[in-house]
Amino acid sequence: MEMTSSSEREAEYHSTDFDWEQLRQEIENLPSFSYHLSPHTTASSTSDSSLVEADSWRRFHRRHSTARFFKERRYLLKEFPELLSCHDSVKVIEVGCGNGSTVLPILRARESIVVYACDCSEEIIEKAKEIVVTAKSITRKDRFVPFVLDFSNNEFPEWLFCTSCQNSSSAKSTSTENSHENEEHINSSILDGNRCCVGGVDFVTLIFTLSAVPFNKMRSVIQKCSSVLKPGGLILFRDYGVYDMTMLRFPPEQKVGFREYIRSDGTLSYFFSLDVTRDLFCEAGLTEVELEYCCVRSVNRRIGKEMRRVWVHGKFQKPVL
């Protein structure tokens, strides 16, 4: 397992190494970056292609399934202390779990936390299982419940939060005899024998996941995440921010939408502004709790080059009914 140095990990906690507004002014005054500011594209849009989303990420995970590619997100609990503040049993779903880099620190946080995790790649789900099973600090492996799901194109399984339980206050009821196609992925010990679902989750984590979804599907993904969240629960969000170093590296021919780019391997990458992020989540009926740019300055020692990283950090709450 590849580890980052302590100094590199600590750097990820700081969000004000430089001023984002100053960065914006600098970038927008450079003619060479003008194509990043234009809403027009210079490449054929691929946002509507499901193959670009799922198949490209499956190939990506297949190429990067080794332990060398694994870097545990150790900053997570410091950025989202809510995961530590709950004393009762807590349910979390990690959307787009990859190889488990986010899952591991959450499982270590408390013995009472159960983590459900999904990704579109069966290979990467198996890799995440392997990493959790071999982690010495996690005694109860049944607290990790992974399942395969292309969440940008499909609904979450009803064993997470069935329609009947979501609408329990209404007269309409849903038969518990409904077929739960993905139920084989869940450990039977998680569910009470008299319950049709786990009753929703307390937290949804979207950590560098939403940017990989075509922009025109992001609202749908957030709605799906909200649908499995308990009232009062939180979506914990962290993703690439506009004018991040990686955005500025994209050439014009890889731009497929406003702030949306396609990599050479076919995977997508979107870069969020605070306004767009706010609109996406609030339009899904969620309430903004925190939203800010994280601006981190780091140095690539190998080539001696300074890197200015920009991420968007957010917390959004599902209203209590």
TrEMBL record:
Matching CDD domains: AdoMet_MTases (cd02440)
Record-level GO BP terms: methylation
Keyword Transmembrane helix attached: no
InterPro entries: METTL2/6/8-like (IPR026113), SAM-dependent_MTases_sf (IPR029063)
Superkingdom classification of source: Eukaryota
Pfam families for the chain: Methyltransf_23
Record's keyword annotation contains ATP-binding: no
Enzyme Commission no: 2.1.1.-
A GO term for molecular function: S-adenosylmethionine-dependent methyltransferase activity
Keywords attached to this entry: Methyltransferase, Transferase
Function: S-adenosyl-L-methionine-dependent methyltransferase.
PANTHER family associated with the record: METHYLTRANSFERASE-RELATED, TRNA N(3)-METHYLCYTIDINE METHYLTRANSFERASE
Family under the similarity heading: Belongs to the methyltransferase superfamily. METL family.
Designated name of the protein: tRNA N(3)-methylcytidine methyltransferase
Species the sequence originates in: Carex littledalei
